[in-house]
Design brief:
Elements (H helix, E strand, L loop, with lengths): L4 H9 L14 H14 L3 E4 L2 E4 L8 H12 L6 H11 L3 H11 L6 E5 L3 E5 L6 H14 L7 H10 L14 H14 L4 H28 L1
Antiparallel strand pairs: 1-2, 3-4
Helix pairs in contact: 1-2, 2-3, 2-4, 2-7, 2-9, 4-9, 7-8
């Protein structure tokens, strides 16, 4: 089953049984970054004077990528990759739900809607078919242990996983140190230009900001 980067990342950030987000600091920066990298891979955007520009007539077939391409094309403000990492979750809201739609249609995930305390709506995506994620994890494990060579898409996915500290769960515990070093090498060697590098840095910045705000909020409540 062919999955875009954003769908692969979502699978890896979801708890398989509960269907909840298991990333500590929020998945939106990573998912929006994955969408940008998908657009880069499909040659639907290019960089001009440090800003991302949508290429006319290159709208992707995937609905989420097509909407992201449109958002960039119609934006009155030019933004670099880091800027779009922060902006796309608002333009494509609700981002995770929209990325999950195709996985639900294909029977990989199911959707469960809840209300916390009867007030706050939450949506979870428990796994129905473990096959696609199992295949994904097996491939990434082989890459992280040096048993197979990464494709450009694989390298981008590894780079997306690093800020979320999701490399370690992919390999046996006794080989995590080795995998961490390999992940860094793969991520640095698999980029496709400055726009890709800026996207990854934008994700890292957004995750760090989320962490800082969460720690500050916890300190204020104590």
């Amino acid at each position: 089953m062919e999955l875009i980067l954003a769908e692969q990342l979502l699978l890896l950030l979801l708890d398989d049984d509960k269907g909840s987000d298991k990333s500590s600091w929020g998945r939106d920066p990573g998912l929006s970054g994955a969408v940008l990298l998908d657009l880069t891979r499909e040659r639907a955007v290019e960089e001009a004077d440090g800003k991302l520009v949508a290429i006319s007539g290159a709208a992707p077939a995937h609905p989420v990528l097509a909407d992201a391409h449109t958002a960039i094309a119609k934006s009155e403000k030019a933004r670099n990759a880091r800027g779009w990492v922060g902006r796309l979750p608002r333009d494509l809201k609700p981002l995770a739900e929209r990325i999950a739609d195709r996985l639900i249609e294909r029977g990989v995930l199911t959707e469960q809607r809840h209300k916390l305390l009867g007030l706050f709506k939450t949506t979870r995506y428990p796994q129905v078919d473990p096959g696609p994620e199992r295949e994904l994890r097996d491939r990434l494990c082989g890459i992280l242990l040096g048993e197979r060579q990464p494709t450009e898409q694989d390298a981008m996915l590894v780079a997306l996983l690093i800020p979320y500290d999701q490399v370690k769960p992919l390999v046996p515990s006794e080989r995590r140190k080795e995998a961490k070093a390999r992940a860094k090498s793969v991520a640095e060697g698999g980029g496709a230009g400055k726009a890709v590098d800026d996207t990854i840095k934008g994700i890292q910045t957004a995750v760090m900001v989320s962490m800082t705000l969460a720690i500050a909020a916890a300190a204020g409540a104590s």
